[in-house]
Amino acid sequence: MSRPPVLVLEGIGHAYFGRYVLEGVRLRLHAGEVAALLGPSGSGKSTLLAIAAGILDPLRGTLERGYRRHAMVFQEPRLLPWATAAQNIAYPLRLSGLGRAARDARVAEVAALAHFDPADLGKYPVELSGGMRQRVAIARALAPAPDFVYFDEPFTALDPGLRRAMQDLVIEAASRHGFGALFVTHDVQEAVRIAHRVLVLDAGGRGLAGERVVPGVPGARDARTVFETAHGWLAHDALFQAVEGSDERTAGWS
Ligand SMILES: Nc1ncnc2c1ncn2[C@@H]1O[C@H](COP(=O)(O)OP(=O)(O)OP(=O)(O)O)[C@@H](O)[C@H]1O
Asked: Which stretches are annotated as coiled coil (predicted)?
Protein backbone atom coordinates (compact mmCIF):
# COMPACT_ATOMS: atom_id res chain seq x y z
CA MET A 1 0.00 0.00 0.00
CA SER A 2 1.47 3.37 -0.99
CA ARG A 3 -0.27 5.49 1.67
CA PRO A 4 1.98 6.42 4.61
CA PRO A 5 1.64 4.42 7.82
CA VAL A 6 -0.07 6.38 10.60
CA LEU A 7 0.39 3.80 13.32
CA VAL A 8 3.32 1.42 13.58
CA LEU A 9 3.66 -1.07 16.43
CA GLU A 10 6.72 -3.31 16.70
CA GLY A 11 7.21 -6.11 19.21
CA ILE A 12 4.58 -4.81 21.61
CA GLY A 13 4.22 -6.87 24.77
CA HIS A 14 2.33 -6.26 27.97
CA ALA A 15 1.69 -8.10 31.23
CA TYR A 16 -0.47 -7.49 34.29
CA PHE A 17 1.02 -8.77 37.55
CA GLY A 18 3.52 -10.88 35.65
CA ARG A 19 0.89 -12.50 33.39
CA TYR A 20 1.45 -11.76 29.69
CA VAL A 21 -1.67 -10.65 27.82
CA LEU A 22 0.13 -9.47 24.67
CA GLU A 23 3.39 -10.56 23.11
CA GLY A 24 5.26 -9.57 19.95
CA VAL A 25 2.43 -7.52 18.40
CA ARG A 26 3.46 -6.07 15.07
CA LEU A 27 0.98 -3.80 13.35
CA ARG A 28 1.03 -1.17 10.63
CA LEU A 29 -2.05 0.93 9.81
CA HIS A 30 -2.22 3.32 6.87
CA ALA A 31 -3.84 6.75 6.48
CA GLY A 32 -7.60 6.44 6.06
CA GLU A 33 -7.57 2.71 6.79
CA VAL A 34 -10.21 1.29 9.14
CA ALA A 35 -8.97 -1.83 10.93
CA ALA A 36 -11.19 -3.92 13.15
CA LEU A 37 -9.57 -5.68 16.10
CA LEU A 38 -11.30 -8.94 17.01
CA GLY A 39 -10.58 -11.49 19.70
CA PRO A 40 -12.28 -13.34 22.52
CA SER A 41 -12.92 -11.60 25.80
CA GLY A 42 -9.69 -11.22 27.72
CA SER A 43 -7.43 -11.53 24.66
CA GLY A 44 -6.05 -8.02 25.19
CA LYS A 45 -8.02 -5.90 22.68
CA SER A 46 -8.60 -2.98 25.05
CA THR A 47 -5.04 -3.24 26.34
CA LEU A 48 -3.66 -3.02 22.80
CA LEU A 49 -5.93 -0.08 21.98
CA ALA A 50 -4.86 1.75 25.16
CA ILE A 51 -1.19 1.15 24.28
CA ALA A 52 -1.67 2.33 20.69
CA ALA A 53 -3.48 5.47 21.90
CA GLY A 54 -0.74 6.25 24.44
CA ILE A 55 -2.93 5.76 27.52
CA LEU A 56 -0.87 2.79 28.68
CA ASP A 57 2.90 2.28 28.37
CA PRO A 58 3.77 -1.16 27.01
CA LEU A 59 6.22 -3.35 28.85
CA ARG A 60 8.02 -4.10 25.59
CA GLY A 61 8.20 -2.82 22.04
CA THR A 62 8.08 0.46 20.16
CA LEU A 63 5.38 2.66 18.65
CA GLU A 64 5.29 5.38 16.04
CA ARG A 65 2.25 7.57 15.50
CA GLY A 66 2.13 9.44 12.21
CA TYR A 67 -1.35 10.90 12.59
CA ARG A 68 -1.98 14.52 13.54
CA ARG A 69 -4.73 14.16 16.13
CA HIS A 70 -6.66 11.22 17.50
CA ALA A 71 -10.02 10.86 19.26
CA MET A 72 -11.56 8.02 21.26
CA VAL A 73 -15.05 6.54 21.52
CA PHE A 74 -15.82 4.02 24.27
CA GLN A 75 -18.70 1.65 25.02
CA GLU A 76 -20.02 4.13 27.60
CA PRO A 77 -20.52 7.60 26.10
CA ARG A 78 -18.69 9.24 29.07
CA LEU A 79 -20.58 12.53 28.73
CA LEU A 80 -20.43 15.35 31.27
CA PRO A 81 -23.79 14.99 33.07
CA TRP A 82 -24.03 18.67 34.00
CA ALA A 83 -23.53 19.87 30.41
CA THR A 84 -26.01 19.89 27.51
CA ALA A 85 -25.44 17.82 24.36
CA ALA A 86 -24.14 20.95 22.60
CA GLN A 87 -21.78 21.77 25.47
CA ASN A 88 -20.50 18.19 25.53
CA ILE A 89 -19.79 18.26 21.79
CA ALA A 90 -18.14 21.68 22.14
CA TYR A 91 -15.94 20.59 25.05
CA PRO A 92 -12.78 19.66 23.07
CA LEU A 93 -13.23 22.81 20.95
CA ARG A 94 -13.31 24.98 24.11
CA LEU A 95 -10.13 23.29 25.31
CA SER A 96 -8.44 24.17 22.02
CA GLY A 97 -9.48 27.82 22.44
CA LEU A 98 -11.86 28.09 19.49
CA GLY A 99 -14.13 31.16 19.64
CA ARG A 100 -17.85 30.95 20.41
CA ALA A 101 -19.20 31.48 16.87
CA ALA A 102 -16.81 29.01 15.25
CA ARG A 103 -17.56 26.54 18.03
CA ASP A 104 -21.33 26.78 17.54
CA ALA A 105 -20.93 26.31 13.79
CA ARG A 106 -18.74 23.25 14.27
CA VAL A 107 -21.15 21.74 16.84
CA ALA A 108 -24.02 22.09 14.35
CA GLU A 109 -21.88 20.54 11.60
CA VAL A 110 -20.77 17.43 13.55
CA ALA A 111 -24.18 16.98 15.19
CA ALA A 112 -25.64 16.78 11.67
CA LEU A 113 -22.93 14.30 10.67
CA ALA A 114 -23.86 12.13 13.67
CA HIS A 115 -27.56 12.46 12.70
CA PHE A 116 -28.28 14.12 16.03
CA ASP A 117 -31.46 16.21 15.92
CA PRO A 118 -30.59 19.94 16.39
CA ALA A 119 -33.75 20.28 18.51
CA ASP A 120 -32.12 18.01 21.13
CA LEU A 121 -28.83 19.92 21.40
CA GLY A 122 -30.05 21.79 24.50
CA LYS A 123 -30.91 18.57 26.36
CA TYR A 124 -28.84 17.06 29.18
CA PRO A 125 -27.50 13.45 28.93
CA VAL A 126 -30.12 12.19 31.39
CA GLU A 127 -32.85 13.36 28.97
CA LEU A 128 -31.34 11.40 26.03
CA SER A 129 -31.70 7.74 25.02
CA GLY A 130 -28.64 5.46 24.90
CA GLY A 131 -28.37 5.82 21.13
CA MET A 132 -28.64 9.62 21.30
CA ARG A 133 -25.94 9.73 23.97
CA GLN A 134 -23.64 7.63 21.79
CA ARG A 135 -24.31 10.00 18.85
CA VAL A 136 -23.21 12.90 21.10
CA ALA A 137 -20.05 10.97 22.02
CA ILE A 138 -19.28 10.41 18.32
CA ALA A 139 -20.00 14.05 17.45
CA ARG A 140 -17.70 15.15 20.30
CA ALA A 141 -14.96 12.83 19.03
CA LEU A 142 -15.26 14.19 15.48
CA ALA A 143 -15.51 17.88 16.49
CA PRO A 144 -11.75 18.61 16.48
CA ALA A 145 -11.41 16.87 13.07
CA PRO A 146 -9.23 13.92 14.12
CA ASP A 147 -7.39 12.02 11.42
CA PHE A 148 -7.43 8.86 13.54
CA VAL A 149 -10.14 7.48 15.85
CA TYR A 150 -9.91 4.68 18.42
CA PHE A 151 -13.22 2.88 19.03
CA ASP A 152 -13.46 0.46 21.98
CA GLU A 153 -16.63 -1.64 21.47
CA PRO A 154 -18.69 1.54 21.06
CA PHE A 155 -21.96 -0.12 20.04
CA THR A 156 -21.98 -3.32 22.12
CA ALA A 157 -24.68 -2.00 24.48
CA LEU A 158 -27.05 -0.93 21.67
CA ASP A 159 -29.84 -2.97 20.09
CA PRO A 160 -29.16 -4.46 16.61
CA GLY A 161 -31.09 -1.84 14.57
CA LEU A 162 -29.44 1.09 16.30
CA ARG A 163 -26.12 -0.66 16.08
CA ARG A 164 -26.33 -0.85 12.30
CA ALA A 165 -27.31 2.84 12.12
CA MET A 166 -24.28 3.75 14.24
CA GLN A 167 -22.00 1.56 12.12
CA ASP A 168 -23.28 3.41 9.03
CA LEU A 169 -22.46 6.67 10.75
CA VAL A 170 -18.85 5.59 11.33
CA ILE A 171 -18.50 4.32 7.76
CA GLU A 172 -19.90 7.60 6.36
CA ALA A 173 -17.82 9.83 8.65
CA ALA A 174 -14.61 7.87 7.99
CA SER A 175 -15.02 8.03 4.23
CA ARG A 176 -16.14 11.68 4.16
CA HIS A 177 -13.40 12.90 6.50
CA GLY A 178 -10.81 10.30 5.57
CA PHE A 179 -9.88 9.36 9.10
CA GLY A 180 -8.26 6.04 9.90
CA ALA A 181 -9.49 3.94 12.80
CA LEU A 182 -8.75 1.03 15.06
CA PHE A 183 -12.13 -0.44 15.99
CA VAL A 184 -12.33 -3.04 18.77
CA THR A 185 -15.30 -5.39 18.56
CA HIS A 186 -16.45 -8.91 19.51
CA ASP A 187 -18.73 -9.09 16.50
CA VAL A 188 -17.36 -10.51 13.24
CA GLN A 189 -20.30 -9.07 11.23
CA GLU A 190 -19.64 -5.61 12.63
CA ALA A 191 -15.95 -5.96 11.74
CA VAL A 192 -16.77 -7.06 8.18
CA ARG A 193 -19.25 -4.21 7.77
CA ILE A 194 -17.06 -1.31 8.83
CA ALA A 195 -13.44 -2.30 8.18
CA HIS A 196 -10.97 -2.56 5.33
CA ARG A 197 -8.98 -5.13 7.29
CA VAL A 198 -9.73 -7.42 10.22
CA LEU A 199 -7.03 -8.26 12.79
CA VAL A 200 -7.53 -11.19 15.15
CA LEU A 201 -5.84 -11.43 18.54
CA ASP A 202 -4.71 -14.77 19.86
CA ALA A 203 -6.73 -16.05 22.83
CA GLY A 204 -3.64 -17.14 24.72
CA GLY A 205 -1.85 -13.80 24.93
CA ARG A 206 0.51 -14.52 22.05
CA GLY A 207 -0.31 -11.38 20.10
CA LEU A 208 -1.94 -11.18 16.69
CA ALA A 209 -3.01 -14.59 15.38
CA GLY A 210 -3.62 -13.29 11.87
CA GLU A 211 -5.51 -10.87 9.66
CA ARG A 212 -7.85 -10.85 6.68
CA VAL A 213 -8.56 -8.15 4.11
CA VAL A 214 -12.34 -7.67 3.79
CA PRO A 215 -13.42 -7.86 0.13
CA GLY A 216 -14.89 -4.60 -1.20
CA VAL A 217 -15.09 -1.18 0.42
CA PRO A 218 -16.88 -0.22 3.67
CA GLY A 219 -20.25 1.33 2.80
CA ALA A 220 -20.39 -0.40 -0.59
CA ARG A 221 -20.96 -3.92 0.81
CA ASP A 222 -24.56 -5.04 0.84
CA ALA A 223 -26.12 -6.86 3.82
CA ARG A 224 -25.90 -10.24 2.09
CA THR A 225 -22.17 -9.88 1.34
CA VAL A 226 -21.50 -8.86 4.95
CA PHE A 227 -23.51 -11.80 6.28
CA GLU A 228 -21.95 -14.35 3.94
CA THR A 229 -18.40 -13.14 4.50
CA ALA A 230 -18.76 -13.16 8.30
CA HIS A 231 -20.50 -16.53 8.40
CA GLY A 232 -18.08 -18.03 5.89
CA TRP A 233 -15.14 -16.97 8.05
CA LEU A 234 -16.75 -18.25 11.24
CA ALA A 235 -17.66 -21.59 9.66
CA HIS A 236 -14.56 -22.33 7.60
CA ASP A 237 -11.63 -20.11 8.61
CA ALA A 238 -9.59 -21.43 11.54
CA LEU A 239 -8.47 -17.89 12.41
CA PHE A 240 -12.00 -17.06 13.56
CA GLN A 241 -12.71 -20.18 15.60
CA ALA A 242 -11.05 -18.67 18.66
CA VAL A 243 -13.06 -15.44 18.42
CA GLU A 244 -16.31 -17.10 19.40
CA GLY A 245 -14.95 -20.36 20.83
CA SER A 246 -12.87 -19.39 23.85
CA ASP A 247 -14.46 -16.42 25.50
CA GLU A 248 -12.99 -15.67 28.96
CA ARG A 249 -16.49 -14.94 30.28
CA THR A 250 -17.96 -18.30 29.25
CA ALA A 251 -14.88 -20.54 29.63
CA GLY A 252 -15.54 -23.45 31.99
CA TRP A 253 -19.30 -22.89 32.16
CA SER A 254 -20.55 -25.98 30.42
N1 LIG B 1 -5.64 -3.10 34.90
C2 LIG B 1 -5.56 -4.43 34.86
N3 LIG B 1 -5.01 -5.12 35.85
C4 LIG B 1 -4.92 -6.47 35.82
N5 LIG B 1 -5.36 -7.23 34.80
C6 LIG B 1 -5.93 -6.60 33.77
C7 LIG B 1 -6.08 -5.16 33.74
N8 LIG B 1 -6.68 -4.81 32.57
C9 LIG B 1 -6.92 -5.96 31.91
N10 LIG B 1 -6.48 -7.02 32.62
C11 LIG B 1 -6.54 -8.45 32.20
O12 LIG B 1 -5.81 -8.55 30.98
C13 LIG B 1 -6.49 -9.40 30.06
C14 LIG B 1 -6.79 -8.59 28.80
O15 LIG B 1 -7.75 -7.59 29.11
P16 LIG B 1 -8.38 -6.65 28.01
O17 LIG B 1 -9.44 -5.83 28.67
O18 LIG B 1 -7.31 -5.94 27.28
O19 LIG B 1 -9.05 -7.74 27.05
P20 LIG B 1 -10.21 -7.56 25.97
O21 LIG B 1 -9.87 -8.48 24.85
O22 LIG B 1 -10.41 -6.13 25.65
O23 LIG B 1 -11.45 -8.11 26.79
P24 LIG B 1 -13.03 -7.73 26.64
O25 LIG B 1 -13.41 -8.16 25.27
O26 LIG B 1 -13.68 -8.56 27.71
O27 LIG B 1 -13.16 -6.26 26.87
C28 LIG B 1 -7.72 -9.92 30.78
O29 LIG B 1 -7.43 -11.17 31.32
C30 LIG B 1 -7.96 -8.89 31.88
O31 LIG B 1 -8.59 -9.49 32.99
From this structure: none
C-alpha dihedral over 177, 83, 93, 166, to 10 degrees?
-10
Give the pairing of strands 180-184 and 148-152: parallel
**How far apart are the CA of 248 and the centre of ligand 1, in A?**
10
Neighbours of 250 (CB within 10 A): 12
Tell me the per-residue pLDDT of 111-165, one tens digit each, with 9 for 90 and over. Answer: 998 889 999 999 999 999 988 999 999 999 999 999 999 999 998 878 888 888 8
Is 185 close to ligand 1, i.e. is its CB under 6 Å away? no
Q: Sign of the CA dihedral 231, 233, 237, 241?
A: negative
Domain 1-69+150-247 carries which CATH code? 3.40.50.300
Between CA 63 and CA 61 the distance in angstroms is 7
pTM of the shown model: 0.91
- For ligand 1, the distance from its centroid to the CA atom of residue 188, given in whole angstroms, is 20
C-beta of residue 110 within 8 angstroms of C-beta of residue 150: no
pLDDT digits (tens, 9 = 90+) for 182-231: 999 989 999 999 999 999 998 877 889 999 999 999 989 999 999 999 99
**ipTM for the complex?**
0.97
Helices vs. strands in the chain: H and E counts, helices first: 8, 9
Query: Residue 205: how many CB atoms within 10 A of its CB?
Result: 18
